[in-house]
Amino acid sequence: MPQSIFGFWVFRQRGARNAQAIARNLFVGEGLKLSITAASFAIVWLNAETLQAAAVFAGFVITVLAGQLSLPLILKGR
Q: pTM higher than 0.85 for the full model?
C-alpha cells in the first residue's frame, strides 16, 4: 500500500516542463510512504497480543529486498 501511494503521488505529473514538480513530488511521496509504513508498524504492535519482533522485521526486510532486487533480474533478460 505505501508503495502504491508513493507511485501515485510521484507520477501524477508528466513532461519535462514539470521536472521540478516531479522532483518535489518524489520527496513528498517518499515521506508519505515512510509515514504510512511507520503507522502500519504501530498498528501491528498495538493490536497484536503476541508478536515476534524479529520475525516482523525479518519479513519486512525480505519484502523490501525482494522488491529492490527484482527489477535488475527482470531487466537482465532484455
A: no
